[in-house]
Specification:
Layout lengths: L12 H4 L25 E3 L2 E3 L4 H28 L5 H13 L7 H14 L2
Antiparallel strand pairs: 1-2
Helix pairs in contact: 2-4, 3-4
């Protein structure tokens, strides 16, 4: 595995799929100090936006979905290489490993990736 976010630009079926409700909407929530109520927003095209835009969320979803598919193949390979590990142990090991990568993903996105990966090995 590399330290770059893997992307599959040739798979157009992912772009057409709806984003599931459980996919994170704001993977990098802001914490602002002080006694007054505050929120972190960005000015985009004359509008203040809190969290991800629809386009940003779609892009992050497609990256995460592609990573799930790649991790499925990787897990199948590792299962053959490490037959002494239960699937649960193997997935725990993979979970710890991918969180160490500098892929620019948040912990809630890694949580979603691992939830999806675990579901595929149900």
């Amino acid at each position: 595995m590399t330290n770059q976010i893997p992307q599959n630009e040739t798979n157009n079926t992912q772009a057409a799929s709806p984003i599931p409700e459980d996919f994170p909407r704001d993977p990098f929530p802001a914490a602002l100090s002080g006694s007054q109520l505050k929120f972190a927003a960005r000015l985009i095209d004359g509008r203040y936006v809190v969290g991800l835009t629809d386009e940003e969320r779609r892009e992050r979803y497609e990256v995460c979905l592609d990573l799930v598919e790649q991790m499925k193949t990787y897990t199948d390979k590792k299962q053959l290489q490490l037959p002494e590990l239960s699937m649960e142990q193997l997935l725990d090991k993979i979970d710890k490993s991918i969180r160490l990568k500098d892929w620019g993903l948040s912990s809630v996105e890694f949580d979603w990736i691992m939830k999806e990966l675990r579901a595929r090995f149900g």
